[in-house]
Amino acid sequence: CVCVCVCGADPPLILLRSITISLPLQVYIALIKSFQPVLRKESEEVLSRYYQMQRMADTRSQARTTIRLLESMVRLAEAHARMMFRQEVTLQDAIVAVSIMESSMQGAALLGTVSPLHSNFPADPEVEVGECSL
Length: 134
Hints:
Layout: E1 2-6, E2 13-17, H1 23-33, E3 38-39, H2 41-56, H3 67-83, E4 88-89, H4 91-111, H5 125-129
Parallel strand pairs: 3-4
Antiparallel strand pairs: 1-2
Helix pairs in contact: 2-3, 2-4, 3-4
């Protein structure tokens, strides 16, 4: 059962919805969890070249572009391959991983540097957000 709070309504609305996953979907998810897709040469090239380009970019500090970026993109590409029911990470999977990473970076750039240490927190957050309780 999922509880969805609609804040901003007067009074706040609490909606309860039951989410059921069909049996074929449960079987599919259980099956793809066991997959360990292998990187193809061309997908490995795309991911490593994107990583190299990020390291060379003037707009990002090289110190911030670590090997973790490459590892994350490999995991994203593998996850996409699993979702597509493939044992190999194809060029398409690598491109999707790069696309996700680019979208993430653009979203972060729009937000700017967000640090909880430099944020202004409301004095009474429950009033600002609205009370959401059952």
